[in-house]
Amino acid sequence: FPATSKTQEEEEEVVQKYLENYYNLKTGWRKISKQTGPGQSVEKLKQMQEFFGLKVTGKPDAETLKIMKQPRCGVPDVAN
Amino acid sequence: FVLTPGNPRWEQAQLTYRIENYTPDLSRADVDHAIEKAFQLWSDVTPLTFTKVSEGQADIMLSFVRRDHDDNNAFDGPGGQLAHAYQPGSGIGGDVHFDEDERWTKDFRNYNLFRVAAHELGHSLGLAHSTDIGALMYPSYMFSGDVQLAQDDINGIQAIYGASQNPNQPVGPQTPQVCDSKLTFDAITTVRGEIMFFKDRFYMRATPFYPEAELNFISVFWPHLPNGLQAAYEVAHRDEVLFFKGNKYWAVQGQDMLPGYPKDIHSSFGFPRSVKHIDAAVSAEQTGKTYFFVANKYWRYDEYKRSMDAGYPKKIADDFPGIGNKVDAVFEKDGFFYFFHGTRQYKFDPKTQRILTLQKANSWFNC
């Protein structure tokens, strides 16, 4: 079933926060959404997918979100 | 592995550490022990030594804090970030902060303090995050029962500090590479329509999400199963999967461990005492007959009668011609048996008792 807009909003929040915390996405960048066009946040999302050996789609798919919701270390994955 | 950009390192090999405060989740002794073991992992493989001090400024200060704790890297409450650490250097350099909003444990429950401390100390010594899912320095929290440095972690820390004086150099487990042409398997089974491959601490399975195949810890699904499984098979009509190691076996239904396990293979299936472990097993869905492979022989067991068929064991070579005298793993799909021995995989038709194809063991992954 298509995610409700609230779920989608929450997922975008998860992605945004994760990329800001661990992939140096500058805070305040426009929200990532399923329809996001090319931009810094998509590049950062691809970087994260590459790091975790996922399919590099640039889109917050289910597997990407699953990893972003896993508890982890607070140190960024890329040089700050 | 990845070294922290700029390659920060401690110039002196003798380092001190101090536990500034203690979490109420564990006794002080348990915290001291967890932290001491975590340091020990790294000192075992490097020339570094770590001495605990009780007051003053130590090289590595460890503390339990929550939310904003004056280092411009606030924690986020329960879950999410568990801890962080700073690269080697003076002042805050090397320090480790644990999020007090987490529950800290000394067992498999979230989150094991020894496991998290071992990871954070890797940062304190100059390591960044590794992309190797089997490495301690992998960013996401994984607890697979034992906490040990993977070979990837050892390679990383020795790239910074060299090896220890230890005459027998500790080695760590390697994470299987799904597209390694030399990949072999411990056990393979179907699970509710999927095929799961097992090797050491890991499972592998082909999924649409990963370019090649998904690889993760067995403990992600079944935390109480041992590593290094030797055989596994599914009894589809009972929706059960059985896992074997040594003379014991476990049964699961989906992700749930069934109660009363592990059980003994001799008393449950009637194997002679001379059978010490099972090499491979598969249950034919249509007939309910399970085949157990042990060295160059095999037994047949009836899942409906729950008893071994008479006239066994028989020689593998007599009834499964061409697959050799030893089986590492086997599973059934669409009425065919897929036998694995080393890097070879035989597709076998039990009706005609003929091999149909010979492939590489990892042909199921999109390599």
3D shape of chain A: globular
Instruction: Let me know the average pLDDT of chain B.
Output: 95
* Radius of gyration of chain B, whole Å: 24 Å
Q: Give the topology string of chain A: H per helix, E per strand.
A: HHHE
Strand order of the largest sheet of chain B: 2-1-3-5-4
Helix content of chain B: 10-25%
The low-confidence runs of chain B, each spanning 5 or more residues with pLDDT under 50, are none
What is the percent of helical residues of chain A? 40-55%
Strand proportion of chain A: under 5%
Through-space gap between termini of chain A: 38 Å
CA-to-CA gap between the ends of chain B? 23 Å
Q: Tell me, briefly, the overall form of chain B.
A: elongated
Order of helices and strands of chain B: EHEEEEHHEEEEEEEEEHEEEEEHEEEE
Can you walk me through this structure?
The complex is a heterodimer of chains A (about 80) and B (about 375). Chain A has helices at about 5-20, 40-50, 60-70; one strand at about 70-75. With about 80 residues, chain A is mainly alpha-helical. The longest helix of chain A has 18 residues, at about 5-20. The relative contact order of chain B is 0.10. Chain B is elongated, with a radius of gyration of 24 Å. Chain B contains 5 helices and 23 strands. Chain B has helices spanning about 30-45, 115-125, 150-160, 265-270, 315-320, and strands spanning about 15-20, 50, 60-65, 80-85, 95-100, 185-190, 195-200, 200-205, 215, 230-235, 240-245, 250-255, 255, 265, 280-285, 290-295, 295-300, 305-310, 315, 330-335, 335-340, 345-350, 355-360. With about 375 residues, chain B is an alpha+beta fold. Chain B has a 5-stranded mixed beta sheet with strand order 2-1-3-5-4, with helices on one face. In chain B, strands 10, 11, 12, 13 and 14 form a 5-stranded antiparallel beta sheet that branches. In chain B, strands 15, 16, 17, 18 and 19 form a 5-stranded antiparallel beta sheet that branches. The longest helix of chain B has 16 residues, at about 30-45. Chains A and B meet through α3 and β1 of A and β4 and α2 of B. β1 of chain A pairs parallel with β4 of chain B.
